[in-house]
Amino acid sequence: MSQGHQLTLTDRKALSVSGVKHVDSFDEGKIMLNTSLGILVLKGESLNVNQLNLDEGKVSITGNIGNIQYLDEHQVKKGKGIMQKLLK
Asked: Which Gene3D superfamilies does the entry mention (predicted)?
């Protein structure tokens, strides 16, 4: 993957993301992407991954996008600790 990370949001209904390493999780309300710049969390309603090409690092998402957030290292580590506790 030679290109950088970019987001293109159209009318809060369609999002194209480049620089994606892999999809961590997704459902209708939340999608987590591991990108070249960190974990990207998308929240909304009726979210759908329409196109996924990890060889090119590109993802296309549709739905009612309400929130776009990057998690910093502290938030990612905190989240992993909670998940580890739940899985015990």
From this structure: 2.60.40.2000
